[in-house]
Each structure stands twice: as C-alpha cells, then as structure tokens.
What we know:
It is built from three helices and four strands. By secondary structure, it is of the alpha+beta class. The protein has a single domain (4-84), classed as Translation Initiation Factor IF3 (2-Layer Sandwich). It has a four-stranded mixed beta sheet, sandwiched between helices. The longest helix is centred in the middle third of the chain and has 14 residues, at 30-43. It is globular, with a radius of gyration of 13 Å. It starts with a helix and ends in a 12-residue tail after the last strand.
Amino acid sequence: MLTGKQKRxxxxxxxxxxxxxxxxxxxxxxxxxxxISEALEARELLKVSVLQNCDQPKExxxxxxxxxxxxxxxxxxxxxxxxxxxxxxxxQIELP
Length: 96
C-alpha cells in the first residue's frame, strides 16, 4: 500500500508521461490487462487514457485495471488513470 507521500512523489513523476494505453469502445479485456502488466514490469509507472467512446464508466475501467494488473492506483484525473507497480527485474523508481 502506498503512503500519501509516495503517491505525491509518483504523481510528480507521472506528470510528464504520455498515456501509452487507451481504453476505447471495447472496454477492458484480458489482452489489454496482459499488455499493461508487461508495460508496468518494464516501466513501473504509466498512464492509461479512457476515451470518450468507452462503453464502461471510468470507475469500472480503473477497478478492472487495478485488480487485473495487481498495480497500485496512484491517481485518476478526468479520463486519465495513473498506475504504479514495482518491477521485479527492472526497478527504476526509488520511493521516498
């Protein structure tokens, strides 16, 4: 579980990132969760964008991504979801 201080630090780190995944009309599926898990292993911190044409509410998308990837939710702003998961092989981010 992340502390408030760690979440603030991760929000700062994520600010300049561009979203590398977009959830659209199809919603969240197993393939997307698998790809996001692999990206989290490589990067630890990433943004996911929920597009306007997504059929699922963004809260459902957020919950599906968090439970499916077993990542920590850092933040949800508008249609942007920021996820963090400590990498086993490729640790880059040192939390305060």
